[in-house]
């Protein structure tokens, strides 16, 4: 095994097998090779002359298959086929334009090869369900135009005979002679019948128009102008402009700027330049919670183009997602903002791709295809011939090492735009706090309590962060010590007081808390631990005068509830915001001067080599929410492990110090970014079958394995049981990912597994859980 110190993460541009680059074999191809969506078969069909102008690479088409119509995607255009004499013609196209632009089809093939996922499944992931199943399900409305108003005498006669007709005519006239049927029906329920009569009289005309389901239709955005850049911002922006002029000569840019250094302003001004060149831009954000504020900033800055900004994320309704996707597809959008899956937006003429908070693990898809949107952004930018910006205050160690090695270009901003210093961070040793309390338990330390009180008295705002939901995190027997565990998952069930239920946060099972121990029958049961629900109850008791809200997945169920809550907080109608990682990053609230981290040890104690990195990133990000206005910020980190390097380096906002010691350990123990990983998992209702399957796979992988392969032992997963299935895993590591993936593919192709056993693989795994 080589101990090379160069970074291998991610090896995104190695040659791929399978022909990722698709080319026309002539200007007028006669045959289309299609991938049938329901069967994954690749078949050849003749392109009928009448459809020649509509069949393109990436088109979805109807094809005859075994006496019925099937939906397929054109993946190659040919002049000839070995079956030329027996080919049937394509029946029809779905739409007139390819649903997968050529570069997206190239990206799909790259993704399929790199992450070892069937192309059929990749293409299915790329299209939202609403587009895939209902491609033409647009809403429509009737557009009503006034042709003429009756003269005065006729109008008076009509007013006596049919007053509703006059009322509708006058309403249309007041709207400038134009209206829609839906608007008229809001005022007059019988408008449909009346309009029918007015059309017959020749007084109005009626035509059908498409109605866009705009998720921000009722929002008002105040226009904003570009801000004056600081010296650091100007230097970074100048380099971005150079990359826009010469994208072929520019590696991916890692904009490493402390919280509040003005990364978003650089994004906005860079996109402004892209739009001037009549090109489009794609912006990825990691969390739904960041999307409302990002959209507000972009629609305010580009107010004259706000109708040409499209949004793609999971909190949209199916109809909204359908219409936003078609807005992009029909080239009516210049800017696309969205979460992970927005990397597949069918944008063309892309001039810039931005990945904000590039370090975030939520960019990694946790089910097939297990892609990483940040890495796909780098690949897509290469295919589109445009620059890509990766931005973060706490870069991933993979991206940082890529910058150090020269694969990426590092652009740093070390100062906040307002010239203010970063917040003062204080560590609170909860071991000492525990001794001061009567029951040895405290959610809010005395130091943090006094700090919150001081903010309330001064009219300033506070954020309290706890990355765990629920009221209590465990229910245990005081006699035998057994904890109430989900019967289908190997995790303790969390008590939610609002529901009076124990809930499993893995599978969602709910049940009433038992009155006695289910193991020994003793009634002495004790609740332990705390989540955001209990933290909220405690803080309401301690600060009864405070206006507060809780932000987690339990409370943010209603559509737009998160957006509305954050808006209330921004307008200073709330004093305290309690929440999980939904509020930990990217948000900008100038009146927040205090951040409290109620338990900094949660992520640190996970059995994952990335635990320290994630803890450092989370603490630094949440601390960065404080002091972004005129007043100095202050942060209290409550912890039982105050001497942990991740906590100490975050206290001083010392990314370089943390990265140096963490990278040294990663290199010593052969972990990313110095090696690639593939995490193989097996699961099934029978533990023996799942374990044996993985052991058999491991033994076969050892034969003819790549020389740089490091293979661990098959073992139970940290989450040993979930959804009623026992889980085992095997970690593979290698310097070069392609030979490893090809070897794995070959071994899997020659294996069958017992019924009920599911084997998965995750290339460049981000979690070992």
Give a quick precis of the structure.
By secondary structure, the chain is α/β, with parallel strands linked by helices.
Structural topology:
Layout: E1 31-36, E2 42-46, E3 60-65, E4 68-78, E5 92-93, H1 102-114, H2 119-126, H3 129-133, E6 139-146, H4 152-161, H5 163-174, E7 178-180, H6 181-187, H7 191-200, E8 204-211, H8 231-245, E9 253-257, H9 263-276, E10 280-284, H10 290-301, E11 309-312, H11 318-329, E12 335-338, E13 350-356, H12 373-384, E14 388-392, H13 397-404, E15 409-413, E16 424-429, H14 430-436, H15 446-458, E17 461-465, E18 474-477, E19 494-496, E20 501-503, E21 510-511, E22 525-528, H16 532-542, E23 548-551, H17 561-570, E24 576-579, E25 592-597, H18 611-623, E26 634-639, H19 645-651, H20 655-668, E27 676-684, H21 687-702, E28 710-711, E29 715-722, E30 725-734, H22 737-749, E31 758-763
């Amino acid at each position: 095994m080589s101990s090379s110190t160069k970074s291998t993460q991610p090896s995104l541009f190695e040659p791929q097998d399978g022909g990722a680059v698709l080319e026309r074999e002539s200007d007028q191809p006669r045959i289309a090779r299609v991938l049938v969506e329901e069967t994954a078969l690749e078949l050849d069909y003749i392109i009928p002359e009448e459809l020649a102008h509509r069949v393109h690479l990436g088109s979805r088409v109807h094809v005859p298959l075994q006496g019925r119509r099937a939906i397929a995607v054109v993946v190659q255009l040919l002049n000839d086929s070995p079956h030329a004499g027996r080919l049937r013609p394509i029946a029809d196209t779905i739409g007139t334009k390819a649903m997968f632009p050529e570069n997206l089809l190239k990206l799909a093939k790259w993704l399929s090869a790199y992450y070892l996922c069937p192309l059929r499944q990749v293409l299915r992931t790329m299209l939202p369900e609403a587009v895939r199943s209902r491609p033409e399900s647009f809403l429509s409305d009737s557009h009503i135009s006034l042709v003429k108003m009756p003269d005065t005498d006729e109008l008076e006669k009509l007013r006596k005979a049919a007053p509703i007709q006059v009322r509708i005519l006058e309403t249309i006239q007041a709207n400038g002679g134009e209206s829609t049927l839906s608007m008229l029906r809001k005022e007059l329920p019988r408008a449909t019948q009346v309009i029918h009569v007015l059309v017959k009289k020749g007084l109005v005309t009626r035509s059908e128009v498409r109605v866009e389901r705009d998720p921000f239709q009722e929002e008002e955005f105040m226009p904003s102008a570009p801000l004056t850049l600081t010296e650091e911002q100007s230097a970074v922006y100048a380099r971005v402009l150079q990359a826009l002029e010469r994208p072929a000569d520019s590696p991916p840019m890692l904009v490493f700027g402390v919280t509040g250094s003005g990364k978003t302003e650089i994004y906005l001004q860079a996109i402004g330049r892209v739009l001037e060149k009549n090109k489009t831009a794609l912006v990825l954000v990691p969390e739904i919670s960041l999307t409302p504020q990002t959209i507000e900033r972009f629609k305010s800055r580009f107010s004259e183009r706000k109708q040409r900004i499209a949004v793609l994320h999971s909190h949209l309704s199916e109809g909204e997602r359908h219409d936003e996707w078609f807005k992009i597809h029909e080239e009516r959008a210049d800017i696309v903002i969205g979460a992970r899956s927005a990397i597949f937006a069918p944008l063309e003429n892309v001039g810039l791709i931005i990945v904000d908070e590039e370090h975030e693990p939520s960019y990694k898809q946790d089910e097939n295809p297990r892609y990483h949107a940040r890495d796909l952004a780098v690949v897509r930018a290469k295919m589109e011939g445009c620059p890509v910006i990766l931005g973060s205050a706490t870069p991933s160690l993979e991206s940082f090492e890529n910058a150090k090695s020269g694969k990426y270009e590092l652009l740093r901003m070390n100062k906040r735009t307002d010239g203010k210093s970063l917040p003062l961070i204080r560590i609170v040793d909860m071991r000492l706090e525990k001794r001061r309390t009567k029951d040895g338990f405290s959610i809010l330390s005395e130091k943090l309590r006094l700090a919150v009180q001081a903010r309330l008295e001064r009219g300033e705002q506070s954020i309290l962060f706890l990355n765990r939901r629920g009221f209590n995190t465990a229910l245990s027997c005081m006699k035998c010590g057994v904890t109430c565990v989900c019967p289908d998952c190997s995790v303790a069930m969390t008590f939610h007081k609002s529901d009076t239920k124990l809930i499993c946060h893995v599978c969602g099972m709910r049940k009433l808390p038992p009155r006695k121990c289910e193991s020994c029958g003793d009634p002495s049961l004790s609740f332990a631990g705390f989540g955001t629900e209990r933290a909220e109850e405690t803080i309401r008791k301690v600060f009864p005068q405070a206006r507060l809200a809780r932000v987690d997945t339990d409370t943010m169920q209603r559509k737009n509830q998160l957006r509305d809550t954050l808006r209330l907080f921004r307008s200073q109608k709330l004093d305290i915001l309690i929440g999980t990682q939904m509020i930990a990053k990217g948000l900008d609230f100038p009146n927040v001067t205090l951040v409290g981290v109620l338990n900094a040890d949660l992520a640190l104690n996970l059995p994952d080599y990335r635990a320290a990195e994630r803890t450092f990133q989370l603490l630094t990000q949440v601390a960065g929410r404080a002091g972004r206005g005129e007043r100095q910020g202050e942060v209290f980190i409550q912890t039982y492990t105050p001497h942990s390097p991740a906590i100490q380096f975050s206290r001083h906002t010392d990314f370089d110090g943390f990265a140096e010691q963490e990278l040294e350990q990663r290199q010593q123990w052969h972990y990313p970014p110095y090696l690639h990983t593939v995490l193989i998992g097996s699961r099934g209702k029978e533990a023996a079958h799942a374990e044996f399957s993985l052991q058999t796979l491991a033994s076969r992988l050892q034969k003819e394995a790549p020389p740089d392969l490091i293979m661990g032992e098959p073992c139970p997963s940290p989450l040993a049981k979930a959804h009623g299935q026992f889980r085992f895993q095997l970690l593979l590591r290698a310097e070069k990912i392609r030979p490893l993936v090809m070897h794995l593919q070959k071994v899997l192709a020659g294996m069958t597994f017992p019924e009920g056993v599911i084997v998965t693989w995750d290339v460049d795994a981000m979690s070992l859980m």
